[in-house]
Design brief:
binds iron/sulfur cluster; globular; NADH Oxidase; alpha+beta; 9 strands; single chain; seven-stranded antiparallel sheet
Length: about 230
Amino acid sequence: MKIFKKLNIEISKDIGKSFLTSVMGGRLNKQIEEMLVEKRKICIENISPKLIFDKYDIEKIIGDKVYFKSGNVFTGPNISRILKNSETAIIFVQTLGNKIDVLITEESKKGDTLSAIIMDAITTNLLECLGKATAKIIKTEGITQKGWDSTCSYSPGQFKWTIEEQKEIFSMLPCEKIGVKLNSSFLMEPFKSSSGVYGFGPSELISKIKTACEICPKKDCIGRRTKDF
Ligand code: SF4
């Protein structure tokens, strides 16, 4: 198991703009552009990126079930499809920390819905930046043999993997060590956190699915990605 409590992430100058533009229906007015600049600074100053992950050997995949040698089991048609022929999997949880959740909640409580929406869009993109940084670390750890490669990442809550499977992920990692817990709805707290799995094995045998979005039918989803991390 590995834990990173101080991660540096690469943040583009216009972070949040593209996602916010989609959220706002395609264009931003001058007031929103100015608020974006102001809130971007606040968001970046108040994140604390952290990562925990561990490697698990896959024993077998039968039907919708992925059996790990540890006794853990993942269930779902797409997780078994994505991990097919992988020999190992890295299970991870990453977070931007609690402070940013508190700030967004405060804006909502004050009734400043626009600020909360802008900060939410910025931090959604910051979580993607964190995903890019952690993918590098995880893939370096998982690709242990010549000719091996990694699958795309896949997370509970994505199409055809129920959010309840978070419980299995949290039984595989001591997430409290990076300050993340599951609430009774199987959502992570802090909310600006994400979890998931990458599979690893011989490149000619493992899944070639590029992103979980590729096998998701929600074509008009504003979060749709064509490239994995
Ligand atoms: S298209 Fe949207 S809903 Fe479907 S997996 Fe991608 S982000 Fe999730």
